[in-house]
Amino acid sequence: MITNVHQLQSLYKSGERNFRGVDLSGLNLQGIHLVSADFSYANLSGTNLGRADLRWTKLRGANLTNASCEYSNLRRSSLCHADLTNANLYAADLRAANLFGAHLNGSRLIEADLWGAIAPDGGTVSFDMLAGFASALAAAG
Asked: Which InterPro entries does the entry mention (predicted)?
């Protein structure tokens, strides 16, 4: 059981990449480097992942509700069926990320880079989709 950032970093540095189902809820992982790690079905709710390097990370089915991912690098990560409800993804790098089936209700995606990302409905994120999303956010207030 991982209870703090130092344990997680130590395991990662020793070559461990399988963190499936781990509970890291509420931890401060700001700026952490976890490229190509597997956090499928992990509980990351309320976790601070600001400026974290999570390229190629598997987050399939992970709980990221209320997580802070500002300026995080999630390029080419798999977020299939992840719950990102109310997550802060401000200026996050989500280029070519797979968001198929992801729950994005209330997520903050302002200035996030979604170029080439797979949308929750399985299509590719397009300019029209982002413009519609921005309009909906502006209307919501």
From this structure: 5peptide_repeat, Pentapeptide-BTB/POZ_domain
**20 contacts 2 by C-beta, under 8 angstroms:** no
What is the domain extent for residue 89?
1-141
Q: Residue with structure tokens 């997680």? A: 8
CATH number where 7 lies: 2.160.20.80
Q: Please say whether the beta carbons of 70 and 50 come within 8 A.
A: yes
Q: Which amino acid is at 141?
A: G
pTM tops 0.90, yes or no? no
Residue 22, CA distances (Å) to 27, 60, 71, 119 in order: 12, 13, 23, 26
As for how many domains the chain has, the answer is 1
Cα–Cα separations (whole angstroms), residue 48 to 26, 66, 89, 131, 138: 7, 9, 11, 28, 26
User: Could you read off the pLDDT of 73-120 as tens digits, one per residue?
Assistant: 999 999 999 999 999 999 999 999 999 999 999 999 999 999 999 988
Q: Cα dist. 104→35, 69, 74, 87 in Å?
A: 23, 13, 15, 8
